[in-house]
Design a protein that fits this description.
single chain; 6-stranded mixed β-sheet; 14 helices; 4-stranded parallel β-sheet; 10 strands; alpha/beta; 373 residues; globular; binds pyridoxal-5'-phosphate
Amino acid sequence: MAATRLSARLLKVRPVVDIRPRNFSKELRHGFVGMVGNTPLIRFNKLSEQTGCDITAKAEHLNPGGSVKDRAALYLIKEAEEKGLIKPGGTVIEGTAGNTGIGLAHICLAKGYKCVIFMPDTQSQEKIEVLQTLGAEVHAVPAVPFDDQMNYNHQARRYAESTENAIWTNQFDNISNRRAHFETTGPEIWQQTEGRVDAVTFSTGTGGTIAGVGSYLKSKNPNIKVVLADPEGSVLYNYFKYGELKRSEGSSITEGIGQGRVTSNLQGAPIDNAVFVSDKEAVEMTFFLLHEEGFFVGASSGLNVAAAVKVAELLGPGHVITTCLCDTGQKYFRRLFSRSWMESKGLYVFTRHSNNEREVAANYVRELDLNRS
Ligand SMILES: Cc1ncc(COP(=O)(O)O)c(C=O)c1O
């Protein structure tokens, strides 16, 4: 009671408080939305020494929803608001492999929207659990190709069409996705490398990252090389290398990347070259980043860094190569970081390093396996 009386008295004597957002520090971030982007640029010292190039990556796993997709999620909602497509209390609906959904779900909470996510049932259980914890309604649907009307994207579109005050954010073909990277990630890379970046390489899901970053950097210096990194089972390597929409052999354990078509975000992207990265190489690099560099990230990050090393080999020493760490490893305990699951895929052998120090890290993987699978 005393405290209540005291605050009431204080309120009476205090002047009216100005509640407009105040930028009393450049470092101040305003809410969840203000946390998206402006990620650090990391230089991997050992890989840089080995290649003679600066191998660098944007720490996109440090975005507030834990992935590079927070940037796209923010722009997808922001532009829908600006165009008046969604009103307060509305519903945001998306088809997503998970990370865009997680970004959207966070932003929906911060802005007071409902969130409904359709995702292929091949994605990690952890992503579903995170989405549900964030209050999203999750529909895990059978993974079928895009030309099948039961594909998760078409299901999301139909659901939005039948819902009042709802938007289908359509990350694959809504180019506000690549605009996010043109307006934020690209300029950040330019500034953080002080304009010295020679090449960027990114694996591709929607194509938003590579198209947006690539276009921005080419506008600053057309000599910067933009290289697409592609996993097993995707068509994009063959498309950008040989002009054929032909799948490469195998199927990948990586999530969120690889594509069967040229999305609207990818159309017209200034891509100079493509490199193929096998799951073996992506896994080896993911565990190198864990054991040797201390970064706990997902397999698309490993794939990106492996691609950066390949690009360094193509360009020769003395170049600055930039990629990104896409998301944290915490979403993959039951797969990438599960011994039994990785053994079932024939990939466990590539998670290990031979000397004793590395055995310590391999034990870590084994322990996770015992606890989680
Ligand atoms: C883990 C992960 N890495 C990379 C990407 C690819 O990014 P983009 O959609 O901008 O091509 C995604 C996209 O969902 C992702 O989830």
